[in-house]
Each structure stands twice: as structure tokens, then as C-alpha cells.
Design a protein that fits this description.
With 284 residues, this protein is an alpha+beta fold. Helix content is 32%, strand content 29%. Strand 8 and strand 9 form a beta hairpin. 33% of the residues are buried.
Length: 284
């Protein structure tokens, strides 16, 4: 654990932030590679589980993302289960259905409070029940930062640590949405057996609570908040290189804020979960 300083919550306090700006998106692997290049110098940090190494290389991340996209492009539901859920068999999914139904309204991100410990716990509880391997889960639950100085390593046991943020970072999660037949709307980040996997989501807060003085600050582009410019670059790339997705379901067009890469137009309608539900993407 050479990159990060060692500390403890009794010294650092608790990270709290609120008013998160979120960008859910599905982009092609070449678009993802272009995005990472455009963002410049930054690193992926593992913040969702106990780890020995704090970071994941961009090469490994791209490899995992390409495997995920391969399942969507080929329209193979079982491959998606293998890549995203960690080799869940049909019997395992059947056993997990009561848990999935119970988790219908559990959200993966607390956009109001910023207390990500509860969000991670809910997400991990759900994914553990459906067989998501820890080794695979970590590649889509990451934090992006231009500097290691916004983290510390909390020693857990032997050479294992929890990586904890002390200042705002870009939080990345696997994204999915729930198509509601009751009101014809698509709800982001609802854990349900009916949810459709849709790439990733990156989020960044607008308000930061100082862990010792408990005063609130509006997050800006000053050196105090080194990741603001990184998130601004990500948002700019999303505006320029992706489009908001309009779905067609039950003969109705449903506009959403979910972003779609332009290189995905040629294959997005082979998405097995969309096909299963009779949902198509309106291609521009």
C-alpha cells in the first residue's frame, strides 16, 4: 500500500457530500478508450471492498468492459450473467428471485446524503445473493481521481485495507434501470430482477461537508477539490460524443437522460434484456 497514507476514521472523520450530478452511459469499447485518453492523468481506485492493491489499471478496466460489451453485442443473456453477475446458473437465479423482489426499491446510490457506505452495503448485499463474485464486482465499483491525496488506507487485517475518500471523487458504478409498466417510465439504479443493465454511471457531488468542522462548502474548481476539473471534462465529453437515449416501448417513445455512444447505434438493439422486454432504442 505504497500510494496511500495510512489513517483511521477517528482521525479523518467521515466523508459526506450531497447533490450528486450523475451521468449514466453506455458507450462502445473504442469510445471508452477515447474517453480515458481524453480525461488525461487519473487512476481508478478500489473503494467497494477490502483490497491489497488500491488501484486498477486502465488496461484491466478496459479488458473487463470489453467483455461486458461483448455480451451485449452478441445478444447472449447467459454471457451477461457470467460477466456481470459472476457465473450464476439458472438454479441460482431461481433461488435468488425472492431476494431480487425484496430488493426492488433499493437504490445503489444515495444521491441526497452522499453516505456511500450504506449504498455500497445495499449493492453488495444484493449482488452477493445473486452470486456476483467479489473479484468481478470490484471492476465496476470504482472511484476516479487525479491524485491519491484524497484517499487514505484503513488497515483491516494483514496486508488488506479499505480505501476511504476524504474529499470528493468521481464515483463509478454499474448502471441499470427499471422499466415500470405502471407509469411507462424508466427508473435509474433500481435493484430488481426486471432491471436492464445499461453500462456505467459516474457521479460527482456539489456540496461537501467538512469532516471536522461540519461546515458545508460548495464544490468548485479550486485546488481544494482537485477532481472537479476531471468531472467537468467527463461531462463535456459526454455532451459531445454521446446522445440522450430515447426508447420505444409499447408503441410509446420514452426519452431518458441515459447517454448512448454513437458507435453503439449499430448493435444496441441486440441487447438481450431489451429484446426480452420488447424495448427498442430509437436510433438517430
Amino acid at each position: 500500500m505504497q500510494l496511500l497514507r495510512h489513517s483511521h476514521p477517528s482521525v479523518e472523520g467521515t466523508f459526506n457530500a450531497s447533490k450528486w450530478l450523475k451521468h449514466p452511459f453506455l458507450i462502445d469499447d473504442e469510445e471508452m478508450k477515447a474517453l480515458l485518453t481524453y480525461l488525461g492523468e487519473f487512476a481508478f481506485y478500489q473503494v467497494s471492498s477490502v483490497v491489497q492493491t488500491p488501484t486498477v489499471s486502465q488496461e484491466v478496466f478496459l479488458e473487463k468492459y470489453r467483455a461486458y460489451l461483448a455480451a451485449l453485442k452478441e445478444g447472449i443473456p447467459n454471457m451477461i450473467q457470467k460477466v456481470v453477475l459472476g457465473c450464476v446458473g439458472a438454479s441460482g437465479l431461481q433461488q435468488a428471485q425472492p431476494v431480487l423482489k425484496q430488493a426492488m426499491c433499493v437504490h445503489m446510490a444515495d444521491g441526497s446524503s452522499g453516505k456511500d457506505e450504506d449504498a455500497h452495503a445495499a449493492q453488495n448485499h444484493f449482488l452477493n445473493h445473486v452470486g456476483y463474485k467479489e473479484e468481478e464486482r470490484k471492476f465496476f465499483s470504482l472511484a476516479l481521481s487525479v491524485t491519491p491525496d484524497v484517499f487514505y488506507a484503513l488497515h483491516v487485517k494483514e496486508e488488506r485495507y479499505l480505501i476511504k475518500p476524504v474529499k470528493p471523487v468521481i464515483q463509478m458504478q454499474a448502471h441499470h434501470f427499471f422499466p415500470s409498466s405502471l407509469d411507462g417510465k424508466f427508473y435509474s439504479m433500481v435493484l430488481s430482477q426486471e432491471s436492464v443493465r445499461w453500462g456505467l454511471q459516474c457521479a460527482y457531488p456539489q456540496i461537501f461537508e467538512h469532516p471536522h468542522t461540519y461546515t458545508f462548502s460548495k464544490i468548485n474548481s479550486s485546488p481544494t477539490f482537485p477532481n472537479t476539473q476531471l468531472f467537468n471534462k467527463l461531462a463535456k465529453w459526454m455532451r459531445q460524443e454521446t446522445v440522450p437515449t430515447t426508447f420505444v416501448w409499447k408503441e410509446q417513445k420514452i426519452p431518458t437522460s441515459f447517454r448512448l455512444g454513437k458507435r453503439c447505434f449499430s448493435w444496441v438493439n441486440t441487447h438481450p434484456q431489451l429484446k426480452e422486454k420488447g424495448i427498442t432504442v430509437h436510433v438517430y
